[in-house]
Design goal:
The chain has 110 residues and is an alpha+beta fold. The chain contains two helices and five strands. Strand 1 and strand 2 form a beta hairpin. The longest helix is centred in the middle third of the chain and has 19 residues.
Length: 110
């Protein structure tokens, strides 16, 4: 089992029917670092910049560039059967005996 989030959603036509292209990417867990003692101002500035960018990424204001883990091309009927997931919705992927099971979990909370 793996948890992914919807990162891209676009409409398209599949076999003459309206459909959706849904990209699912891995959910990264935030890394919390302990405060360090800095002796050099340059090292302090570098670490501060890294922490600010990390905070912006976690808030969704400065998104990380990521490769999708799964890309689904669904008809509207299939998309609705999945629960019409939107951007930042969490989806659980389970792999069992030659089947992929998708379960919508809800929105990402930050």
């Amino acid at each position: 089992m793996v948890v992914v989030k919807a990162t891209s959603l676009s409409s398209l036509e599949i076999d003459g029917q309206p459909g959706v292209r849904l990209e699912l990417s891995s959910v990264g867990t935030p890394v919390i670092e302990e405060a360090e003692q800095f002796q050099d101002e340059q090292i302090y500035a570098k670490q501060l910049t890294k922490n600010v960018l990390s905070g912006l990424q976690q808030a969704g204001l400065f998104p990380k560039v990521s490769q999708p883990r799964v890309v689904l091309f669904l008809t509207m009927k299939e998309y609705e059967a999945l629960g019409r997931p939107q951007i930042n919705d969490l989806i659980e992927l389970s792999f069992e005996s030659s089947k992929i099971i998708l379960k919508t979990l809800g929105k990402v909370t930050t």
